[in-house]
Amino acid sequence: MKKNILITGGTSGIGFNAAKTLVKNPENNLILIGKNINKGELALRKLREISKNKNITFLNCDLSSLAEINNFFKVNKFSKLDILVNNAGAVFFNKSLSKEKIEKTFALNHLGYFLFTHFIIKKKLIKKNSKIINVASGAHWGVDIDFDDLQMTKNYNGWVAYKKSKLCNILFTKKLSQILEKDGIKVNCLHPGFVQTNFGSNNNCIIKLGISFAMKFGGININKGTETLLYLIRTQKKISGEYFYKNKISPSSNFSMSKVNADKLWDKSLELSSKYL
Ligand SMILES: NC(=O)c1ccc[n+]([C@@H]2O[C@H](COP(=O)([O-])OP(=O)(O)OC[C@H]3O[C@@H](n4cnc5c(N)ncnc54)[C@H](OP(=O)(O)O)[C@@H]3O)[C@@H](O)[C@H]2O)c1
Question: Which of 14, 196, 244 to mutate for ligand 1's pocket (most ligand atoms within 8 Å of CB)?
């Protein structure tokens, strides 16, 4: 049966590696989203080299920008999805701002997932009984969120901002799974492991080198690091609202399990993106 699968951040790392496996099934129709058009075209060429599957599209969007996401859904049309994978993410060690002047780690890693998914649902671009998969991280452990200072205006630290944004991914998953229960849409998130990818490459040379060194010696290879995502895409059909690691439901922090926290994040996210909904 034909399956329409959209992967944000599908041009590199975990998203691209998942696409390399999925493209081999001629029944899969893939839509990859990325910010860098050259990387998008290169990803398409590579996928066409390894498969005869013609059903691959690259669409460009800077997912850290609320206005760009809003515009993306005005100009792009695609068939209803069976699977949405919110995966595009990055860490900004030096504080950066999105086009709308929102702290960029939070804007891309959380508001990007939030607003993109909002439009997918609002425009009825997802089938009933489909799946939404959010790539979160084990980095969410050890932090909480100040809902009155989501953008860390007082004391910015890039790594802590990243950890908090990944905590947001779990809270978002919990809330969205409740909202979409009536439609049979399953929403889950995952930790892929510490994976050898291009993650961190948007930072300065020293940080870039440090991260790639840590990945080379402490990280798992990309195929291992894509296993849980592929498991959720291909196998898991019944469970919703859970955090997976190594193909199994895994514990996540107490903060991430709180319904009150999930509600607060939802309300604040609506507020921040209200102009673009
Ligand atoms: N690698 C790990 O150890 C690890 C561990 C836990 C969780 N994760 C999570 O896994 C996800 C994927 O990361 P990765 O490790 O595969 O990193 P990666 O190799 O750097 O890939 C990131 C992807 O996100 C896209 N992206 C980044 N900024 C974007 C933007 N503003 N708009 C649109 N697309 C954007 C990139 O496309 P462009 O190049 O076009 O920007 C790229 O396709 C992230 O959510 C990350 O937090 C990774």
Answer: 14
């599957």: which residue's tokens?
A: 53
Is residue 89 lining ligand 1, measured as CB closer than 6 Å? Answer: yes
Helix crossing, 158-179 with 259-273: angle to 10°? 100
**pLDDT band for position 237 (50/70/90)?**
confident
- Closest by CA position to 137, among listed 115, 169, 106: 169
| DSSP structure class, residue 182 | G
Domain span including residue 184: 3-276
Sheet with 28-34: strands ordered across: 56-60, 28-34, 3-8, 81-86, 126-135, 186-191, 243-245, 248-249
Q: How many domains does the chain have?
A: 1
Q: At 270, which CATH number?
A: 3.40.50.720
Sign (positive or negative) of CA dihedral 218, 11, 105, 231 = negative
The C-alpha atoms of residue 97 and residue 151 are separated, in whole angstroms, by: 10
Kindly report, residue by residue over 188-208, the tens digit of the pLDDT: 999 999 999 999 999 999 999
Average pLDDT estimate for 80-103:
98
The three-class DSSP label of residue 2 is: coil
Helix, strand, or coil here: 191? strand
Would the pTM count as exceeding 0.70? yes
The model's pLDDT over 98-136, given as tens digits with 9 standing for 90+, comes to 999 999 999 999 999 999 999 999 999 999 999 999 999
Cα–Cα distances in Å, from 177 out to 84, 91, 231? Answer: 13, 26, 18
Sequence-ordered list of residues with C-beta below 8 angstroms from that of 57, at least 6 positions apart, any chain: 30, 31, 32, 78
Query: Which residue's alpha carbon is nearest to atom 42 within ligand 1?
Result: 9
